[in-house]
Amino acid sequence: MRSNCMLALSLLVSSSVSLVAQQALTAQDYSNAERWNSYNVSGLVDHTVRAPKYLPDGRVFFADPAGGATTYKIADPKKATVTAAFDSAKLAAALSAASRTNVAAGRLNVDEYEPEAGGGFAVTVRAGKFHCDAAINACKQEPAPPAPVVAAPASAPPAQPGVVVPPVARPRAGVGRRGAAPVNVSPDGKLAAFIRDNNLWVRLIATGVETQLTTDGIKDYGYATDNAGWQHSDAAVLTWSADGKKIATFQQDQRKTGYMYLVPTTYRHPELEAWRYPLVGDKDVTMIEPVVIDVASAAVVRLKVQPLQHRSMECDDVSCEGGKWTDAEFSPDDKQLAFVSTSRDHKDEDVEIAETATGEVRSVFHEHADTYYGWQSKTDWKPLWAAGEFLWVSERSGFAQLYRYDMKSGKLKGQVTHGDGPVQDIVHVDEAKRIVYFMATGKQAGVDPYFNQLYKVDSDGKDQRLLTPEPYQHVVTAAPDGTTFVDVYSSVNTPQTAVLRDDSGKVLVELGKQDIARLLAAGWKAPTPITVKSRDGSTLLYGYMFKPTSFDPAQAAGKKLPVVDYVYPGPQGASCGSRSFAPSHGDDQALADLGFVVVCIDGMGNPERSKAFHDAHASTPQEMGDDTIPDQVAGIQDLATQYAFVDAGRVGIWGHSGGGNATVSAMFHAPEFFKVGWAESGNHDQREYEDDWDERWAGLETIGADGKSNYDAQANQNFAANLRGKLMLVHGTMDDNVPPYNTLLVVDALMKANKTFDLLMIPNVHHGYAEQSQYVMRRRWDYFVQNLLGVTPPADFQMTTYDQVIRKMYGPDAQPE
User: How far is 786 from 792, CA to CA, in rounded Å?
Assistant: First the structure.
C-alpha cells in the first residue's frame, strides 16, 4: 500500500493548475524525488562495461560491475570468447596478505592489469602495484620508487642582475586541471617530467635520480607552465617523442598578464590568492615560446618562430587533456616536430614543421575562417609521417570534413570524408592500408543527428562505409593497430550493449549488456526524446523531457504541469549532454517528480551539427548574448502544442556556468516568458572571463569612437532593468574558473535598477560546490517549488550528505577530496 505521502505526491502531479488540493510538499515528497539522483540509482544498473583497455596481444581487459561487486574479464577477438581475467576471491586473499589490509573480492578496484611471463600478471590497486603468479598463490608488492636524488643541473645561464627568483607557488587545495598529474610520464614509463622552481626536470622512476633540463626559468616565465587562467596547477604541459628521448614544450611568458585575486572567508587574516589570468580585451596576454629538449644532454633548442598565442585548435587551453601540448607531434625519428599555431581570435591556423636539431621552422599550410575555426572534431589534424601527408579537418563545405594535404608543399591532395554531417573524431589511421577510421554525426537519414557512429574510408575518399549500423550513440575504443574496436552503444532510453568488432564492423563477440531490471523495479522511467522547432519555425531541435514518474497523461486530461528548462548555451557544449544511456541526468528526474516537466533543448549555436547551425549565436559579441534563448522559447512553445500537459505559461529556467549566464539572459531578454530563474556561477560578462574562450567565439574586443565596447551587447548587467520574475543568483566565493565578480556585476546592476532578487554566495568553494552541492540542490528545488509550482516546500529538508554521496558512488572507503 502506498503511504499517504506518496498519495499526496500523486495528487500533486495530476492536479489542476491551482493546486488547491495540496498547499505544501512534505519531506517524504522530497525523499521520494531524491531517490532518482545518480547516487541512488547508479547501483541499480548491472553489467555496465567499464574502462576497456587493450592488452599487448590484442585482447581486451574490462570491468563488469553487478550487484554491488565488480568482476574483471578479458575478451579475446581471435577466439571470440569472454572469460574471467582472474579468480577475484583468490586475488583478494593474495592482495590482503601482501598488503596486510582487508581486500574484498567484489571491491578490488583494479586500475591497471598487465600480463606477465609465465602466465602471471600485475595489477595496480589503491595499495600499489602487485605482481602475482599464474595460480594466484601469492602476490608481491612492487617497491615504492626510490626517494628523489638530485643530479648535477645543466649549466646555469649568466646571472641576471636585479632578478629575484622566488620559490614556485604550490597548488591550492581543490585547485587543479582536467587530467593533470603531478608528473608527466614518458611513453615507455621510465621517466617522469615535472616542474620545480619554474624549470623543467625529469626523474628516472627506477632510481629516483632527478636531472634539471632547463635553468633560466623564472617566475611568470617558466617552462611547461600549466596556466590558462581559468585552470592552473603545477603540472607540466609537454609532448614526449615516442621513444622518450625528446620533449617538446614551451617557456610561457605571462610577465605582463594581469592578475586575478580571490580572498577566502576565514576567522583570521585571509591569505590573498593571486595568479595570472588574462581577460578578454587585455592588451597583454599569455604567450608561449616553443622549445625542443634533448633529455639525455639537457640541450634546449628554441624554435625560430615568434612567440605563439597560448591557444589550441581543440579547446580553450594549450593542453586539452592529460598535460599534453595538444597541437605538437614528433616524427618517428625525432628529427622533426609538426605543430599548429592558432591566432588570438581563432580565425587563422598554421601548420608548421620544425627541425628539432636546429630549431629552423617552415610554414606548410594556412587556413582562415571568417567566424572561428573548429571545435566540431575532437581531433582536428593528424600528421601521416610515412606518407609525407597530414589530415586536416575543415568546415569549408558547411560540415566538418577530413582533407588530405602534402606535408612539404601544403597542397591539397584530396577530400577524404564526404556527405552531410560533421566528423567528430579521427579514431585510427591505418597508414599501410591508407584507411581512415572516424566518428561522425548526422550522416544517416532518420537517425538522431547527435548519435556518433563509426565509419571507415580510403584516404583517397573512396569507399566510405558505416561500421556501426545500430541507430544509437556509439562510444568506440580502437586497438592500437586498428584491427578491432570496442563499441559501446546505447541511447537515453536503451541500455548499453558492448561488443568487440573487427575492422569491417563485424561483431566478433559481445562483451556485455546492461541489465536495468532492478532500476525498472524501483519505478524508474526513461526520459522522453523530443523534437521541436527552432526560432525560425523550420529547423528541428532535439532534446529530452522528464515527467513525474507517477504522472499518467491519459488520466490527467486538462491538467498542466509547469516547465523547468535546463539550459547550457555553449557554443562549446550543449544542454542535453551525452546521448548514451544513464540512469540519472543530474537531478532532472528528481526535480520533475516534485511536480514539473523538466526539459533540455540543444539550440542553434550548439555544436555537433552544421557550421551554419554552430555559428547561429556566436561569431560576434552581439550574437553571443543570444545564449540560445530564442530557441528555448520557441521549443517549449512547440512542445506545449505536442503535449497538452505542458504549461508554456509557467516556465522556469536554470543552469550552471554558461547555463547560469544563459538563465540571467533569459530572465532579462524574455521576461514575459520565463517566470523563475536559478543562475549558478554564470560568466555574465565575458570580459570578466579568461581571454581564450570568448575571443574564439565572438572575436576580439573593439572600442568605438563613442568609447563603447562591442562586448556591451553580451553583458547581462546592462539589461538588469528588464527583470520581472523571481531570480536567484548563486556563486562560489573562491571560483577560480568563473570569478565571482561576474555575478557581483549583475548584483550591482540589479540594485541600481531597484530590482528585487535573491543571492546565495557560497563561502570558500570553487566552480563546483563540493560539500555544499547537496545544500544548493535542495535550495534550488525549494525555489522552483515555491515560486513556480506555487506551494510550500518542506522546511530545511536534509538531503543525502556530500560524504554519503561520495561513499555511495565510489565505495565505503572513499573519502571526499
Answer: 5
For the stretch 138-167, pLDDT in tens is 999 999 888 888 865 554 443 333 333 232
Task: Name every residue whose Cβ is closer than 8 Å to that of residue 312 and which is 6 or more positions away in sequence.
Answer: 318, 319, 320, 326, 327, 342
User: Which H/E stretch holds residue 631?
Assistant: helix 629-642
- Distance (Å, whole) CA 484 – CA 502: 4
Cis before 187? omega within 30: no
Question: Element (H or E) spanning 549, and its range?
Answer: none
Rounded Cα distance, 82 and 507, in Å:
13
Cα atoms found within 13 Å of the Cα of residue 549, Cβ hemisphere only: 21
What cell was used for 185?
610520464
For residue 13, pLDDT beyond 50? no
Cβ-count burial of 96 within 10 angstroms (0-12 exposed, 13-18 middle, 19+ buried)?
middle
Pairing relationship of beta strands 336-342 and 348-355 according to DSSP bridges: antiparallel
Give the integer Cα–Cα distance in Å for 793 and 27.
8
Q: 770: alpha, beta or left, given left = phi > 0 and alpha = psi -120 to 50?
A: left
Among 129, 252, 241, 228, CA closest to 184: 241
Question: Which of 471, 594, 597 lies closest to 527 in space, CA to CA?
Answer: 597
Asked: is 147-375 a CATH 2.60.40.10 domain? The reply is: no
| Confidence grade of residue 22 (pLDDT, cut at 50, 70, 90) | low
Contacts of 715 (CB under 8 A, 6+ apart): 625, 684, 685, 686, 687, 745
Residue 695, burial from CB neighbour count under 10 angstroms (0-12, 13-18, 19+): buried
Q: Residue 58 in contact with residue 80, Cβ under 8 Å? A: no
Say what the pTM is.
0.92
Q: What is the DSSP string of 470-504?
A: SSSEEEEEE-TTSSEEEEEEEETTEEEEEEEEETT
User: What are the pLDDT digits (tens) for 515-550?
Assistant: 999 999 999 999 999 999 999 999 999 999 999 999
How far is residue 271's CA from residue 273's CA, in Å, rounded to a whole number? 6
Longest CA–CA separation in the chain, Å:
84
Q: Into which CATH architecture does domain 4-16+24-43+518-810 fall?
A: 3-Layer(aba) Sandwich (3.40)
C-alpha 671/C-alpha 725 separation (Å) is 7
Distances (CA, A) of 321 to 258, 260, 368, 400: 25, 24, 25, 22
For residues 267-288, b (16+ Cβ closer than 10 Å) or e, as one string? Answer: eeeeeebebbbbbbbbeebbbb
What are the sequence ranges of the domains in the chain?
4-16+24-43+518-810, 50-141, 147-375
Angle between helices 27-34 and 4-13 (to 10 degrees): 80
Q: Identify the three-state secondary structure at position 352.
A: strand
Number of continuous H segments (helices) and E segments (strands) in the chain? 14, 47
| Type and span of the H or E element at 663 | helix 658-669
Q: What is the C-alpha separation between 26 and 3, in angstroms, rounded? A: 12
Q: Using DSSP bridges, classify how beta strands 226-227 and 561-566 pair: parallel, antiparallel or unpaired.
A: unpaired
CA 626 to CA 618: how far, in whole Å?
8
